Amino acid sequence: MSSIWVGERVRLRGIEPEEFHLLMEFDQDSTVMRNNDRLHPPRSKAGYRRYLESGVGTPDDDAFGAGIESLAEGRLVGSFGTNRIDKNSGVFSYGIAIGSDFQRRGYASEAIVLLLRYMFGERRFQKCDVEIYAYNTASLTVHEKLGFVVEGRRRRSQYFAGKYHDVVLMGMTIEEYAAAHSLGSVQSS
């Protein structure tokens, strides 16, 4: 059996409420939080459980989040969530975070490819836009290697850690994705 959600290194899956402690662990690293979004105030164990129990999106909703599980370790190593869904123009975005202990192992790259395969090949989106902090060279490099194109820069866009930061705008079309990666196939039994 094959699954669109499974690659060579990772499986994209729901995050179980009892895994709240892993999200708490990831949120202890301010650099990971800032690279993904921004610092959030501390949350209680019950707050993390409520967040996970509420679920993010439904099976028919293009705005959803999921966990990234390492196949080798059998544990959650990160998460992602789609956002800014524009069905009219066929454009979406996402955010992704990998715990600091699990970075630079190819987990983010593979999770992004799996997510894009689903959004382009199954949900009919034609473009993905991402915003990456200009200082986050690791993420900029990953996205460039995957085939994203720099489309612009929003100067002094975000304020944290006592100063303003630029955001680099990158995008990938379905055609660019298909030229570099597989949209999948249908196999009959």
UniProtKB/TrEMBL annotation:
GO molecular function: protein N-terminal-serine acetyltransferase activity; protein-N-terminal-alanine acetyltransferase activity
InterPro entries assigned to the protein according to its UniProt record, in alphabetical order: Acyl_CoA_acyltransferase, GNAT_dom, Ribosomal_N-acetyltransferase
Gene Ontology CC entries for this record: cytoplasm
Pfam families, per database record: Acetyltransf_3
Keyword Transferase set for record: yes
SUPFAM superfamilies: Acyl-CoA N-acyltransferases (Nat) (SSF55729)
Coiled coil: none
Top-level division of the source organism's lineage: Bacteria
Stated name of the protein: Protein N-acetyltransferase, RimJ/RimL family
Protein source organism: Actinopolymorpha singaporensis
